[in-house]
């Protein structure tokens, strides 16, 4: 993707917390599809950042402690805007999101402002509690916003820079990703979805269901 004829800049923001097993492979592969990666270490205690410190075109941001995914995304977005990225991809560092799909996201963003991965057509590998929570939160957000939200909890996304310049999130946890949708819909940014596979094998989700539900309720009341 590092083609000298291409004038746009594509950044990836990858937040991570104790992902020493996966983070290097994810960041390294992502660099094949973006100009640079902003890797945000959310207080890891397993030296995850050491795995990627030698990679070129990688900016590492280290949070003082484990503040949460929303906080990490906020820091990553600020850096991406500072670096003048035209498009910003977000994906997880635990292997659930396949960087090879970034090209499909880039193709779809050409006629909208945000593209979000939709895993709900392929839920055979998704834990039942996540299926239920995702369907409920997506339904409630759709009703609230008047926009069809197919997968509110998927963190594999791409944003135009203008979206990140005009949205400032308040929440620090996973609920920040729903908060972004609320603010984007209010500002009339166009949101689209793209089908992606669901990958949960050998994964231990960092999301804590009770905290996530509490956070989502706060977002719903905005």
List its traits.
single chain, 222 residues, Spore Coat Polysaccharide Biosynthesis Protein SpsA, Chain A, 7 helices, globular, disordered N terminus
- Major beta sheet, specifics? 7 strands, mixed
What is the rounded Rg?
16 Å
CATH superfamily: Spore Coat Polysaccharide Biosynthesis Protein SpsA, Chain A
Low-confidence stretches: 2-7
What is the CATH fold-level name?
Spore Coat Polysaccharide Biosynthesis Protein SpsA, Chain A
Distance between the termini: 39 Å
Order of helices and strands: EHEEHEHEHEHHEH
- Main structural class: alpha/beta
Relative helix content: 25-40%
Q: Into which percentage range does the β-strand content fall?
A: 15-25%
Q: Give the domain tally.
A: 1
CATH class: Alpha Beta
> What is the architecture at the second tier of CATH?
Alpha-Beta Complex
Give the overall silhouette: globular
Explained architecture:
The chain is an alpha/beta fold and 222 residues long. The protein has a single domain, classed as Spore Coat Polysaccharide Biosynthesis Protein SpsA, Chain A. Helices cover 34% and strands 16% of the residues. The chain contains seven helices and seven strands; from the N terminus they run E-H-E-E-H-E-H-E-H-E-H-H-E-H. A seven-stranded mixed β-sheet has the order 3-2-1-4-6-5-7, with helices on both faces. Helix 6 (176-186) packs parallel to helix 7. It is globular, with a radius of gyration of 16 Å. The relative contact order is 0.16.
